[in-house]
Amino acid sequence: MGSQLEDLKTAIRQALPDLDVVIAWAAGPDGLAHTPLFITSESDVDLVQWDPRCSQNLAGYLPGLRGKKVGIVAKGCDARSITELLQEKLIDREQLTVFGLHCQGALDPEKIAAMADCGRYVRSAEINGGELKIVSSKGACAISLENGLLAKCFRCTGADAQPCDQFIGEHGAPPVLKDAPATTLDRLEAMSMEERFQFWEEQMGQCIRCYACRSACPLCVCQDHCAAQSREPHWVDQTDHPREKLMFQAMHALHTAGRCTECGECERACPVGLPIMTMKQALNRQIKALFDYEAGLDSEKTPPLFQFRENEEHIKERKW
Amino acid sequence: MSVLEGKELRIIGFLCNWCSYGGADTAGVGRFTQPTDLRIIKLPCTGRINPLFVVRAFLNGADGVLVSGCHPRDCHYTAGNFYARRRLEVLRSLLPVMGIEPARFEYTWVSASEGQRWRTVVQKFTEQIHGLGPIPAFKSGTCLEACLGTAI
Amino acid sequence: MSENPGTNLYLPFMATIQEVVRETQNIKTFRVTLNDPEQMRNFRFAPGQVGQLSVFGVGESTFVINSPPTRMEYLQFSVMRVGELTTRLHKLRKGDQIGVRAPLGNSFPFEDMKGKNVVFVGGGIGMAPLRTLLLYMLDNRTDYGDITLLYGARSPSDMAFSYELPDWLARKDMSTVLTVDNGTPDWAHKVGLIPNVLKEMNPSPENSVAVTCGPPIMIKFTIQALHALGFQDEQIITTLEKRMKCGVGICGRCNIGSKYVCQDGPVFTYAQLRELPNEL
Amino acid sequence: MGAARCIKKDALLTWLEEVGKSRLVLAPRAQGKSTAFLPFDPAKGISLSGLATSSPKQALIPRHEALLEFRYTKTDQVPAQTGLAVRELIPNQPTLVFGARPCDARGFTVLDRVYDAGAKRDVYYCARRDKTIVATVACTEPADTCFCNRVGGGPGDSAGSDILVTELDQLYVLEAVTQRGEAFLLEQKLPDATELADKAQAARAAVRAAMPEGDSLLGAPDKVGALFDEMPFWDGVAAKCLSCGACSYLCPTCYCFNITDESKGGQGVRVRTWDNCMSFQFTLEGSGHNPRATKSQRMRNRVGHKFCYYPTLHDGALSCVGCGRCIAHCPVSMDIRRIVSKALTYEKAAKEHSNV
Amino acid sequence: MNIGVFVCHCGSNIAGTVDTVAVAKAALAYPEVVFATDTMYACSEPGQAGIIEAVQKYELDGVVVASCTPRMHEATFRRTVERAGLNRYMFEMANIREHVSWIGKDKDANTNKAAELVHIAVEKLRRNTELTAGEFTINKRVMVIGGGVAGIQAALDCADGGLEVVLVEREPSIGGKMSKLDKTFPTVDCSSCILGPRMVDIAQNPNITLYTLSEVESVDGFVGNFDVKVRRKAAYVDWTLCTGCGECAAKCPSKKTPDRFNEFIGKTTAINIPFPQAIPKKASINAAACLMLTKGKCGACVKACPAGAIQFKQEDEIVTEQVGAVIVATGYDLFDFTQYGEYGGGRYPDVITSMQYERLLSASGPTEGHIKRPSDGKEPKDIVFIQCVGSRDKSIGRPYCSGFCCMYTAKQTILTKDHLPESQSYVFYMDIRSPGKGYDEFIRRAMEEYGARYIRGRVSAIQPKNGRYLIKGVNTLMGDQVEIEADLVVLAVGAEAAKGAPQLAEKLRISYDTYGFYMEGHPKLKPVETNTAGIYLAGSCQGPKDIPSSVAQGGAAASKVLGLFSKDKLASDPQVSSVSLQRCIGCAKCQSVCPFGAIEMTQFRGMTKASVIATVCQGCGNCTSACPQGAIQLSHFTDNQILAEVHALCPY
Fold first, then answer.
1. Mean pLDDT over all residues of chain D?
2. Is residue C254 part of a domain?
3. How far apart are CA A112 and CA A118, in angstroms?
4. Which of A290, B1, E97, E263 has its CB 3.0 to 4.6 Å from that of E356, i.e. a possible disulfide?
5. Does a structural domain hold residue B107?
6. What is the pLDDT of residues E83-133, one digit of tens each?
7. Residues 251-280 of E with CB under 8 A from B
8. Which chain E residues have a beta carbon less than 8 Å from that of B78?
9. Which residues of A touch C83 (CB under 8 A)?
10. CA distance, residue A268 to nearest chain D CA (Å)
């Protein structure tokens, strides 16, 4: 991957004079996850990193930078968010330069920390030949990258960033992965309605209402004006009751219905690790079944809830 | 005041002003006897129904929610019900994930002249909800209770 | 019931609206008394201090007490309708119950101003905080030098306290100038922007203090005008309208650097403001 | 203080259960993927490995807290005359916080200075504080995100605690730090461990000594204050921030709150809930004006408050205790250590970019 | 806020099954309700006086009336509260009659339910704001779409009322279906004799601009201010020069061009004037048949035309007309008779439609009024008329009655007898529908004076037999099989929606039914209005109609427009959406779902924000549902109002 990283740096260096900022990744505070990097000067380019630790979807920053000429480094799944933002005209294509990458999966630091049993005691970590080698106070260990990938990588349908202005490296197919982890949706399906309701009450009891899920969501474009914190309209109250927090999650799911690309940022951002993408996944399944539509694939299309057909082929209305 | 304990369940109807509200009126004019559980909230159009109203009603303890509007193509505002149909059909898949029995929610189309049909809808839906019984409650109790009991 | 307002920082005095005065199309004045006569008797405040009015079920919001401490038959608050709370306040009427957490914050330096000439420059609802000090001074007239008032509003119908203006205009012991941005045929006073009219009036900075309050843009140009007239930063006083929640310096909203507007303010001299970090 | 008691590790749960009979016990417990201070349940155990995800500040400032209850009343005779009854809801729950870490306990001292400030006492906070015993477990192994030693604390410090717990092989040694702690400890049927006090102290000192030294951040106030108008610096450090509240809500010293009325018909409560200074809506005024409208301004206030404004008001004490939760759980891996270090070395003239 | 609640007994209609006193008592407990009472008839004069008195005595700011459906008396009570000095929008109704007392038997449950309905009305009212209608100016011009008899009547009435009228017709001439008819029932007077002068009036009225061979391309704007783009299709003749002399047609070599006007019974030329009374009397070229336009060589007409009006290069032209109202009178089309295979329509030359038969009867038709069989030009002796071809038949999706076929068939049998005294007419029918003035007598005359033989029953098959046709059917009155041999079969085809009707409806933003007929505002009370303000209906576009009804509707639509235009300014309904500039992030989701184009994106201090054109907004609230942050709110149906209703019903 070394040369791919060098190619990326070169591409950024070349494009930088015409751009206000380029968003990429740099090494994070611990060795398990990289952190976003906002490049405004040539010297920043040296900090750029590209390896499976570049888990974050950087597309969420784009609407906030509207009006500037922005370059962005994107994995295949990140680009779907970009497509969606373009589709909703929340960003301008001509102001945007996408440095596209081929991705073979991004790591889930929580999962790795659990597997390596290294907690927050990592001294160093480096990627070498398909493995992440970790040295922590508990000793040294190596985790196979394939085992440490984010859940979404097991569902990957496009590893190459599209749209893309400059593709770095070779195009390729999504990683071939076995043993996809069971999703919460699958687990819920095995439960009774009553159990599911209780499941959410317990999960929401842990929510601290920090709204990291929303802030990290590239499609939560209301951000500063989110209805969750407003009184006009007053959809949710400010108390800590699980009901209100569940209401917010339903709101997030319905607001992103037909727009969510399942980039997983909401779950990745959640500091208490709640399975909050579940509802969005359920809606996506339904939208695929009803409208044969997946978000983030075509910037020319209209999200399914903002259009209609007089005769809906797949909607079976109840006859009374 | 709340629904009559033991006799009734909480059923909320969101009806469009032009067709279904009129249909319910027609049923009334025809003296078509119906169960008394349903409480109708009048809206201008089913296009006004944000699916979150339905979610809010369930989370607040509604046992059933019924949405009714103009038949497709008869929308007073030409297209409101077409949008509503998509939104509500998507909502339908959210409810079971949340642990809300999907049969607690239905949407349908009833015109202003279909008093008889309205009665049928109300009867069948009310039966359906009684078949399901009350919606599960939060173990943590009501919001006000939770606030007043902030022990920690 | 209100066991101990004062010791519980968040527990308001229970109060009753005695009178509602419609000032303009979007401003109403509320005259309230505390329900407990004892509390009302013991209530002390200084001109410029603010109070939090509670409409239970909606919330709280901050307003200056615009009646002077010299007239304690009621506490007066003037409210412009802008958001949820003010809209609900506007729907209240005589006899309705509200909560009052007051007094909060600092006051105008009315002691230090003794013996000085005072120039009041008020714009729109910004007249409310000036009113408390103005009336206080009129009630202690001999303590102060010349009193000049310039009060401006967008149009004649936007002038609050219109019922008091004839008295102020008629008084021999103060001089009053009224101005509007847009006049009407029967408007007998000035037409023009406040800073311009102020320059025309040409008050002397000699032994004077200017007190100004109004919309930010008006304050900005009024201060420029005062500077042009020779007023020093220390001679200019204003009061800040800031979003407050707790009113007791804890909740973290109203700080400008390490100063809390709800405690260290809302009254600042322009000299003090310039010392603060630039985050108004 | 003097009293010292000890308890065998395997007897800890039984003892906590016993304590739980007379007071609420809050102790860290793993739930799902996180650990939080929850009412102790012997069946579910406690989790004392490392730092809990959430800080124990919720023992004193709950995520939501009803301050007042109000009720509009009407009489049949004169319905036009609506009465209003308002009731204070002062907490009255004896509590033991067990398993806080020294940084957490130090966080309580940060809160104390604000909420219990002489004449200006927050009755809700103080009622809880007065009835709460904080039993802090000294750290044995600092995590890679820990930096208590750079902000004036240490892995075995007792500031803010009533009881300091030190792990010694199969034992916990409990030493009273405050009178309140002393009184509590004396009530407990636990073996005396006065003779283990030295050993415990030595253990704590060893951990402290083994902790990697970093540059002290105690000098930050002047430097951070001086950078106030240096917008490029703040723009740089805030660029990747998402404006979420994860850092604030997990932080043991962040105490900003919101007060809202939540009502149902004629009855309701005035609730205090956690709020987050990184949120746009935090400072939004009714008029639409927002004094901290941009992320950079809010970041400046957040860092400024912890490392400059608070110390200015409180004799130089930082309102950061170095627990590192904000680093460990930030969705974009922001690192406040790097921000403050950068501020300390930032040269305006050099126009150094501030990517951290 | 002070709210007063009035619970109506409606005599015993409500009080019979609802304890109205208990409802009023329960209402007193709701927030901000300071007065509640029961009343015998709230809508009666004393009932209204009671409301006004209470508003004044208790200083009420808002009123809830619990009574019948708001569709009945909402307007009444709004006026009442206005008379009491309140804003008319500070009023809500709880429907405790149609939705409670009339449908529930259990008095306790009814009482409880009624109280809850009052509760939600109170919660909604608490969040109402005073609204005042805005005003906007209107463009007092009207467009009539469709130049049939309904459109002609509407256009003339409007023009006589002093309005400028733009009349748009798809065909080269106005006149519509009526211009093809020979005589009209039940008076048997000459169709073109009564319609002709009206058509001439259209041409001569200075207030009327006539666009024939034109179609509506798009409609923007709203009541009082529509912008309509009209496509004027190329006639390949400059009509400003054409004198209508007809020389061109005489010289045109394409003499086998299908004749639309004559229902394809005869042939015409590629360039033609459709019929002698055509208005405007101008020639136009059928491009598909013209040798010049298809093959590039001919030009006979160019040489023939004395005015030099032929222009092969002419193209479609788009003109924009600004009007304040639109009358839609696009009429109907005839059922496609080939759909009934058993009748052989389209296969057997002598099985024809009733309209084709009209053309055979017409003196200006292809046979100059002589009834001749299309196959061999012989006069028929036995003629079978079959009714309900494309009417009252669910199996082909036409369950409705076309209304006028019974009558025109009777007329045609009478005319047949007049033309061919030796002939015999047979009529197969299902039922006779003749409810108009003089109609049933007319049918009787056909049977009794003109000897038409009416057979109640359907025809099962028609087979050619020795140059004639064998018609097999049943006589359901006699209960036996019938076989008749005939020379000519006339199918009484029913009416269906005009081609392109749904597409036009979408341009106009009006509704249409399953069959494509336009929906009137109310089936009884608003027969010529639509639910889109400023758009009216006349004639058969709303449903099949005979001539008198169409003319009546044309006049009614015109009077509606004249009534609308009698004011200089229109009041806009204030229950529309509005945008909070503070909360709007300019994502345009609202704009994308607005069915009326009522939302535009504007620039505000450098930011994009949505903005509602209040006069265009119809108050459906689709935008409010689409806005994730709730920045756009439909007044009086705000999120908070609906949420408050939900909270009132589902306390937690």
1. 91
2. no
3. 8
4. E263
5. yes
6. 999 999 999 999 999 999 999 999 999 999 999 999 999 999 999 999 998
7. none
8. 506, 509-511, 595
9. 232
10. 7
pLDDT tier at D223, thresholds 50, 70, 90: very high
Spatial distance between the Cα atoms of E469 and E490, rounded to a whole number of angstroms? 12
> What confidence score (pLDDT) does residue E220 get?
81
- From the CB coordinates, do chains D and B have 3 or more pairs under 8 Å? yes
Lowest-confidence range among E158-162, E231-235, E446-450, E647-651? E647-651
- Substitution target from D139, D244, D270 for chain A, most A beta carbons within 10 A: D244
What is the value of pTM for the model shown? 0.84
Q: Does D265 touch chain B (CB under 8 A)?
A: no
Minimum CA–CA partner of D72 in chain E: E31
Q: Is residue B2 part of a domain?
A: no
Query: Which pair of structure tokens corresponds to residue E134?
Result: 């805005």
Domain that holds residue C173: 117-239
Check contact B-C (3+ Cβ pairs < 8 Å).
no
Could you give the CA distance from residue D82 to residue D75 in angstroms, rounded to a whole number? Answer: 8
Q: Residue E430's CB: how many other CB atoms inside 10 A? A: 16
Of D53, D141, D271, the CB nearest to A239: D271
Comparing CA positions, the residue from B98, B88, A228 lying closest to residue E639 is A228
pLDDT of residue A124: 85
Q: Which residues of chain A have pLDDT under 70?
A: 1-2
- What does the DSSP assignment read for A201-232? HHHHHH-----HHHHH-TT---GGG-GGG-SS
Q: Where are the beta strands (DSSP E) in chain B?
A: 11-16, 38-43, 64-69, 105-109
Is C85 within the bounds of a domain?
yes
CA distance linking residue E133 with residue E614, whole number of Å? 10
- Band the pLDDT of D82: cuts 50, 70, 90: confident
Shared domain for C76 and C127, answered yes or no, is no
Tell me which chain E residues have a C-beta less than 8 angstroms from the C-beta of C91: 1, 61
How far, in Å, CA of E193 to CA of E187, rounded?
A: 13
Partner chains of D (3+ C-beta pairs under 8 Å): A, B, C, E
B55 vs A: CB within 8 A: yes
CATH, residue C163 = 3.40.50.80
Can you say whether the dihedral through the CA atoms of E395, E396, E402, E406 is positive or negative? negative
* D·E CB contacts under 8 A: 26
Please give, rounded to a whole number of angstroms, the shortest distance from the CA of A305 to a CA of chain E.
9
pLDDT for res C3: 44
CATH number, domain at C58?
2.40.30.10
Question: What would the mean pLDDT of C192-216 be, rounded to a whole number?
Answer: 93
Residue B23: which CATH number?
3.40.50
> Could you say which of D39, D65, D268 has the minimum Cβ distance to residue B150?
D65
Domain edge (last residue) among C69, C104, C139: C104
Span C114-142, pLDDT tens digits: 999 999 999 999 999 999 999 999 999 99
Average pLDDT (C41-55) is 95
Q: What is the pLDDT of residue D353?
A: 53
Instruction: Count the residues in chain E.
Output: 652
Q: Domain containing B50: what range? A: 11-149
Q: Give the model's pLDDT for residue B152.
A: 37
Closest CA to A97 of A19, A6, A170: A19
> Which residue of chain B has the CA closest to D60?
B152
List chain D domain ranges. Answer: 4-63+91-210, 220-256+276-345
CA–CA gap between residue A266 and residue A150 (Å, rounded): 13
D24-31/D34-39 β-pairing: antiparallel
Partner residue facing B99 (CB), from A193, A247, A285: A193
Whether ipTM exceeds 0.85: yes
- Give domain status of residue B62, yes or no: yes
Question: Which residues from E are below 8 Å from B24, CB to CB?
Answer: 98-99
Q: What is the mean pLDDT of residues B62-91?
A: 93
